[in-house]
Amino acid sequence: MTFFKEFKEFAIKGNVFDMAVGIIIGTAFTKVVNSIVADLIMPVLSIFIGKINFQDLAYVFKEAELDAQGNLISAAITIEYGNLIQVTIDFLIIAFCIYLVVRMFNKLRKKSENEQDGTVSTPRNIELLAEIRDLLKEKK
Predict the structure, then answer these.
(1) Which segments of 1-140 are extended strands (E)?
(2) Gap between the Cα atoms of 57 and 82, Å rounded
């Protein structure tokens, strides 16, 4: 029974929920980035390179051999580098977007840390309440 109790404590902790939310958001974010790459960036790049789909790019060492009926005798030997280019573009866009998000959160954190600066004096009524609290603790 202790195993289930420990697992429940582990699953209820905020880190597990944060991780689950991060995975779900990451999955959705990947779909958005894939759409940006396929629908916006690749058409613009296709103007310069002449192809819209990098996944078809390959270097052929040996063409496929077919017999008279069109049956495959031996497969082509190729290096298909196009998918690597496509995935690299996706990665760079995702990395750049994550960089922007982390940068924004860091600025917000620095701003909130500056607002919590300890040099601001505590109001007099709060100080008096703290003294009363301390005196009541001493009596007990």
Answers:
(1) 59-62, 65-66, 72-74, 77-79
(2) 4
